[in-house]
Amino acid sequence: MHTVHLLAHTHWDREWYHPAERFRARLVAMVDALLARAPGDMAPFLLDGQAVVLSDYLAVRPDQTAALAAALRSGQLEAGPWYVLADNLMPSGEAIVRNLEAGRRLLQRLGASPPPVMYCPDTFGHPAALPAIAAEFGYDVAVVWRGFGGASFPATDTAWWVAAGGETVLLYHLPPDGYEYGSALPVTALAADDRWRAIRAVLSARNRTGHALLTVGADHHAPSPTLGASVALLADCARRDGATVTRVSLGEAAAALLRGARARTSLPTVHGELRDSYGYTWTLQGTFATRAAQKRRNARLERALLRDVEVWQVLAWLHGGAAARAVADDGSLTLAQLPALTDRAWETLLLTHPHDTLCGCSTDAVAQAMDARQLEVASVVPELRDAAIALAMRNDRVAARAEAIVAHPTTVIRNRCAYPRGGVAEIRLLETLGDVRVGPGSGNTETLPLHAFGGRPDVEGCLVQSGPSRVRHVRRESPQHYPDDDLVREHRVVAWVPVVPAAGIIVLGAQSQEADAAADRSAAPPSPVTLEQVDGAVRMDNGTLRVVASRDGVRIVSRGARQRRDEEHDDERDDEHDDIHERTTSLTLVTQADAGDSYTASRRGEEELLELHAVHAGARGPLRASIRLHWRWARGSEHIRVETELLLDAGADHVRCDMRGWNGRHDHRLQFRWHTDVGEGNEQVNVLADAAFGPVDRSTRPAPIGHAIPPESPASTMPLHRWLSVYAADRGATVISDGLAEGEVGDGWIGVTLVRAVGELSRSNLPERPGHAGWPCPIPRAQSRGRFAARLGLAIHGPQDERSLRHVERTADALLMPLVGESNRDRTVRPQRLVGPELRGDGLIASALRLDDASGHVMLRAVNITERPVRGAWRLPAGCFEWRRTRLDGMPGLHVDHAWVPVASDVVFDVHFDAAPREIVTIQLRRRDSA
After folding, report:
1. What three-state secondary structure class fits 399?
2. What distance in Å separates the CA atoms of residue 241 and residue 234, rounded to the nearest whole number?
3. Count of CB atoms within 10 A of residue 637's CB?
4. Is 0.90 surpassed by the pTM of this model?
5. Contact status, residue 90 vs residue 132, Cβ threshold 8 Å
6. Residues 862-886, mean pLDDT to the nearest whole number
7. Res. 473: pLDDT tops 80
8. Nearest one of 675, 625, 677 to 655, comparing CA atoms
9. Packed helices 338-350 and 311-319: angle between N→C axes, nearest 10 degrees
10. CA distances from 531 to 374, 551, 613, 813 (A)
11. Long-range contact list for 906-912, CB < 8 A, 24+ apart?
């Protein structure tokens, strides 16, 4: 080691053991002090790799905007590339991309650029796709701490980290004490000499390139006024030892580390996700179920923004005409505002992604603030969605509001997936009962009946199965009118609907040949689902799956797991079944004491099964059948109650499990377990889990090494994004989750944590991790007392291959993004069948369909989840467009031809592309008239 690059920084947890506002007060004082210093005394200083601290500061000090911008442009201060220093294992790949985009946007407003480094100083692990994301943003270096250094990795501070698609980034690993190793430098020569010898010993022990990074700073630390003198003393000590200490920016440090790495003939290569630093530093992999409800809600909100907001803006861009892209003079929302509002919603959601926040290892006040931010995002999603759909359908909401509601509403069915599909749709039908007066003169008045409406609305031409109904108020709104309040009866039904185009919409009930033809194709499912009660048991069956439940237990039987097939393209169908013999599985709920803290589980005592004390028949088909299971557990004053509704649809190859319960137990973990026929006894099992931009293999667990630090036991659990699969040689099984959850694989079972109840932020006496991982603080809200809910899916299928992977992805879509619809009581201009972008190519999944606010271009992103090259295409409706291939960040890539390709078609056209194994492919689309 001959060169030490010294980086002065602060590590700024925006919220943790204090709320954000309390830490903001200290932030303002620190940045004021930095800006007040002479340039030579200040430069360079890193504001912890996140740009959000800039907006936090300027919200209080707007008069310092020019000074802060100048300091950033000159390099005296650095921030970014992230918007927030987020957890990297729990958010989706698209959320990680939005984080980097938001950080770049904020810096660009100040005329600055982020340092080209994936700086992750305290994240509790890193996804396998991070090198690909880095490369697609033009970043060559990643600086990490936790997640690397365990027995599964080479003993090195520098390595080439390779993504599944081959993208490579230089990984630089911080020392065991992490980002604070260089904090509190001494101010006397004697102390500086001792400190240098200690620094040299630690940094040189694993050094491979002669270059090392020394980060000088710590949690919420402002730079010391004596920092310059301390650095000079340390540099003198190093010089006498034949080494150099140079104060640098993060960008300069990364460039030097990269030069040093490239000068070496060989460096170790690592692959996959980083979740193993056992024996080196604490890995802290026990947070995946802490405050589980917030994690599940975050995943649902991410999916809502991606699939129920952004996708409809693309549809409006394709079909809404010029008026959809212009500012509306009547004050209606258009695409002139919707992308920016969507970015704002993403930024609000990203404020909940810092690892101490999303991981749940923060105070109750921080958790309450997270609840409020999630509610903000949830409240704006319907507004953004409905405005975009109205634009796509060219439905003038102002004109519609001025007219009376129609006597026979149409039903709008929407498909949020990038491939056509039909079948069972969940529909909200509105039966208008009367008009409700609001305002002066409305006191003591009855609802005014609307006699023109009679009977319950229906989905014309479709087989419909009735569901629950309720009476409620709904409003019709427009920017030119007061809201019109109506009393309605809302009917929740399921219907067998015709094929809905990819990322598109159909309108049923419109009087047209097109609608009639669509309805004719939807007559009935190939095999209805039935429900019967026999000998105290309730049984439902759809020809593929049979579910039998009684107080003795629950069994799910598969007669051969059909692979889901494309419903429109006969040439792509595969009519062969998997020829799997009848397979039987079962369900249990398990509770176990957990004496851990918010970071680490500490399971105590025996596992206890919840008693299945009642089984009831629910819906009886022909489109959906259901069985309600009632579970309970009680010990003294503590109790747990869970209702599990098992739902089976006609034509489905999975069972849906809707969980609703009440947690009245402290310090425990409640786990749903599916006992499969995979991995029993000594059978070899492969574990595959959904993760950012494609699945990862989690078949092996990390092993602890040495005792350089207090020993930390490797966690047996893992993050569960959308699905978790287990495979034997000839069969497989998958659990699907509606939100980020904690998954676990045991001897013949897959577990999903429903509730993890803990009461302390950090404990020091855990055998699994002796010592405090955070500041000791009671967090009673993390006991998660009260109601909880989750939606899971269970799929039985064939062995691990491309067919199985495609089947799992389509099943996850069916569970998490079913076909949905609702009554449209306004007059539409014309019957609609709107076609969105359709992704073609086996092994490709759609990651994003969005309208970029900065460029006004559509971004279409696909991921090849297979290990082979795939020829793919985006099929688009008629128009005059240009397209090109770009990086994730929308910039032209060096590895592809970035010239715009013109296309004009009166029908449809295909944008063809080649995707290498596990590659992320982004296509940018713009109109020829805007080029």
Report:
1. helix
2. 11
3. 7
4. yes
5. no
6. 95
7. yes
8. 625
9. 170
10. 39, 17, 20, 25
11. 906/878, 907/878, 908/835, 908/875, 908/876, 908/877, 908/878, 909/875, 909/876, 909/878, 909/881, 910/840, 910/873, 910/874, 910/875, 910/876, 911/860, 911/873, 911/874, 911/876, 911/883, 912/871, 912/872, 912/873
User: By the 8 A CB rule, do 702 and 283 touch?
Assistant: yes
Nearest-angstrom CA–CA distance, 429 and 490? 6
Pairing type for strands 141-144 and 117-120 reads: parallel
Work out the average pLDDT over 566-589. Answer: 59
Q: Is 132 helix (H, G, I), strand (E, B) or coil?
A: helix
CA distances from 783 to 270, 294, 741 (A): 39, 13, 17
Rg (the chain; Cα; Å): 29
Could you write out the three-class secondary structure of 149-218? CCCCCCCCCEEEEECCCCCEEEEEECCCCHHHCCCCCCCCHHHHHHHHHHHHHHHHHCCCCCEEEEEECC
Residue 454 in this model has a pLDDT that exceeds 90: no
**Rounded to whole angstroms, how far apart are CA atoms 249 and 232?**
17
In order of their start, the domains of the chain are: 3-271 (3.20.110.10), 292-477 (1.20.1270.50), 587-619+629-702+712-816 (2.70.98.30), 837-930 (2.60.40)
Please give the Cα distance from 777 to 760 (Å, whole number): 6
Residue labelled with tokens 């492919």: 921
Mean pLDDT of 428-438: 90
Nearest Cα to 874, choosing from 887, 861, 891, 865? 861
Q: Which residues contact 681 (CB under 8 A, 6 or more apart)?
A: 747, 748
**pLDDT class of 561 with cuts at 50, 70, 90:** very low
Q: How far apart are the first and last CA of the chain?
A: 52
Residue with tokens 């099984």: 733
**d(Cα 794, Cα 812) in Å, to the nearest integer?**
10
CB count within 10 Å of CB 480 equals 13
Residue 680, CB half-sphere, CA atoms under 13 Å: how many?
9
Find the length of the chain: 931
SS (H, E, C) 462-494: CEEECCCEEEEEEEEEECCEEEEEEEEEEEEEE
Q: Which two tokens stand for residue 645?
A: 């509704």
Burial of 780 from C-beta contacts in 10 A (0-12 / 13-18 / 19+): exposed
DSSP 603-635: EEEEEEEPEEEEEEEEEE-SSEEEEEEEEEEEE
Question: Residue 795 carries which side chain, given as an amino acid letter?
Answer: A
**Ramachandran region, residue 439 (left: φ > 0; alpha: ψ -120 to 50; beta: rest):** left
Residues 6+ positions from 329 with CB-CB distance below 8 Å:
none
Whether residue 81 is preceded by a cis peptide bond, meaning omega within 30 degrees of 0, is yes
**Residue 864, token pair as written in the block:** 């090849």
Indicate whether 721 pLDDT > 50. Answer: yes
Work out the average pLDDT over 530-555: 94
Among 484, 483, 397, 313, which Cα is nearest to 828's? 397
Q: Spell 423-449 as b/e; 16+ CB within 10 A means b.
A: bbbbbebbbbbebbeeeeeeeeeeeee
Three-state DSSP class for residue 521: coil
Which strand (E) or helix (H) includes residue 556? strand 553-558
Name residue 320's amino acid.
G
